[in-house]
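Expect chain and fold; see below:
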Amino acid sequence: MSEWFDDDSFWQNFEGWMFSPERIADARAEVERMVALLGIAGGARVLDLCCGVGRHSLEFARRGFLVTGVDRTRSYLEKARTAAAKEKLVIEFVESDMREFARPDTFDGAINFFTAFGYFDDPDDELKVARNLCASLNPGGRLLIDLVGKEIIARDFRPRDFNRRGDVIMLEERRLLDGWKRLDCKWTLIRGDERHESTLSLRLYSGAEVETLLRSAGFTKVELYGGLSAKPYDQSAQRLIAVATK
């Protein structure tokens, strides 16, 4: 049986919800803060692992960075390439499983954003991704990972809720599994007579757990923040941002 993330229909059916015009517009401010946390300047090589439709890859390229965007979803990469060509931006987009992509000593900075980590049932696969990211960075290069931390989920947990955006309603049902190791999320998208359902399964990480994983992968320093503004990862955190240095 294939995993949920290998189902192309999931990425197609929920694309509009995940990559709304508002979220794509947010990339400008997000990249501004990523650049500061990564400590890089124009001309540096950047890896955008799980780049989706390329919203951050495009913004990095607009700022003069040399960008490689990697994703497993071909339709997303095609849209990213089209957008880059329209703006005459030179970006390399690569179709690859995140567990397989590695380019030793190539990049000055790397990002894995928008809860694109924690997909795999086997923790060894998670460690493999982290090791590949570490290997792909130049010495002193930094990785930025963005997650919803276990502490945040515990503070704000709701077993179900719904959101409306225009004529679209999204229902989310959540279930904690295996003693807080995993979270199953059932998404139901309704637009008129159209209805799509899918269940995502994510591995959960606390701040301490993601730091331990990244150090095990070879990173020498890991800093934790509660958002891209570099505020502390404390009781008011909205995201778990880990910045790891090779």
Remarks:
- The two ends are 36 Å apart (CA to CA).
- DSSP finds eight helices and eleven strands in the chain.
- The CA atoms of residues 13 and 196 lie 7 Å apart.
- The helical segments are 8-13, 15-18, 21-38, 55-62, 74-86, 123-136, 150-156, 207-216.
